[in-house]
Specification:
Helix content: over 70%
Organism: Brevundimonas nasdae
Oligomer: single chain
Distance between the termini: 75 Å
Protein name: Chromate efflux transporter
Length: 401
């Protein structure tokens, strides 16, 4: 009889060594979560044997049903395996630190050197058109993994239409998750009732917005918004990020662009900057926080976005590994994720329309979008997005000045 093999364990490392190992990962974190996870797997699992491949696959399965940036959550968990919760904290900080420092510098330069930014308006418009293309590609990629049956497609389509109609995203998410659970259980009448209730709630919320300010809505511009508001915006994004960092875009946009704190152009610039630096894409929230509320806003929003990623891995992972085996939870999360696909698709349409309205040449903006989408669709490389955005900046500078 062959004895079962024991699970590999990480080598003995000091806390400083754990931090430096994941800081290196952060410095090389180009290409989005797929490339980042592949890099971590290659070095820590295949080369150094921190855990078995089978356990790594199970870990990823758990992280994929949790909100938050998967690559960052993976770093926190691997750090915990090496040196406990302090190791997890240091690993997560090491992975995010390079991108945070870079984005703080970019945010400062963007605000402090605004006259120079104005001179480069054509380049930024070109990049914004390309960013919309990248988001559209991401929607299709996320949808291909999530929309596995006709009912999930139905949830996504309804979420798309509801978002364009102005329904609050939390109503769309709650209704999508609940309706899909009921449909899977064969309770079609109750599912229809959930949808009807969601429509009533959306209309009621719309009436409240027409009659006065929504509870908690910011009342001023930029400087009137404090760090607490930015932390709350980031925390919502961190808690509602299903399927990758692109799913944070609608929530952050609703709380910032939707309240007049930042315009769509600057918002898209932040996503573009996040796409070309070594960092999790969700670091665009740091830029948005800086433009809205300075250093305090940037740090507060960053803390809010990454807090769930630290918390789920450091506090709840052992329990969540068992909980996510519940089939009903899988159905609920699948419905929520399908609604998210619809919300992002609607947001990409809104961002695209806003970009067209600002562009001096609609034909040039559409051409940049189309070429960027074609390249992003066919070029499978960690350098595809940075290259597309750089090329769009050059073309935009030439044709949209």
């Amino acid at each position: 009889m062959i004895a079962p093999q024991s699970e590999p364990v990480p080598p003995a490392l000091s806390l400083a060594a754990v931090f430096l190992r994941f800081l290196r990962f952060g410095l090389l974190a180009f290409g989005g979560p797929v490339a980042q996870i592949a890099m971590i797997r290659r070095e820590l699992v295949d080369q150094d044997g921190w855990m078995s491949s089978a356990r790594f696959n199970r870990l990823l399965a758990v992280l994929q049903v949790l909100p938050g940036p998967e690559a960052h959550e993976l770093c926190v968990h691997m750090g915990m395996r090496a040196r406990g919760r302090i190791g997890g904290l240091l690993a997560g900080l090491g992975f995010m630190l390079p991108g945070l420092i870079l984005m703080l510098g970019i945010g400062w330069a963007y605000v402090a050197l605004s006259p120079v930014v104005g001179l480069l308006a054509g380049a930024f418009l070109g990049v914004q058109a390309a960013v919309v293309a990248v988001i559209v590609r991401a929607v299709c990629k996320i949808g291909s993994h999530i929309l596995e049956d006709r009912w999930l497609w139905a949830v996504a389509v309804v979420g798309f239409v509801a978002t364009l109609a102005g329904a609050a995203f939390w109503i769309v998410l709650a209704a999508g998750g609940a309706a899909y659970v009921l449909v899977r259980a064969g309770r079609f009448g109750l599912a229809g009732g959930v949808v009807a209730l969601a429509v009533v709630a959306a209309l009621a919320m719309h009436g409240l917005e027409d009659g006065g300010p929504v509870l908690g809505q910011a009342s001023g511009q930029g400087g009137d918004v404090g760090a607490a508001a930015m932390f709350w915006t980031g925390l919502k994004a961190g808690l509602l990020t299903f399927g990758g960092a692109y799913t944070a875009i609608p929530y952050v946009r609703a709380d910032t662009v939707g309240r007049g704190l930042i315009d769509d152009g600057a918002f898209l610039d932040g996503i573009a900057f996040a796409g070309v630096i070594a960092a999790p894409l969700v670091i665009f929230c740091t830029f948005v926080g800086f433009v809205v509320a300075g250093w305090g806003g940037a740090l507060a929003m960053t803390a809010g976005v990454f807090a769930p990623a630290f918390a789920f891995s450091m506090i709840f992972y052992e329990r969540l590994e068992a909980v996510v085996e519940d089939r009903r939870l899988h159905d609920l999360l699948a419905g929520v994720a399908a609604a998210v696909v619809g919300i992002i698709a609607a947001t990409s349409v809104e961002l695209g329309w806003a970009t067209l309205q600002r562009a001096p040449s609609m034909a040039a903006a559409v051409a940049i979008f189309a070429v960027a989408l074609a390249v992003a669709w066919t070029w499978q490389s960690r350098y595809a997005v940075p290259a597309v955005l750089a090329a769009a900046a050059v073309v935009g500078w030439g044709v949209m000045r």
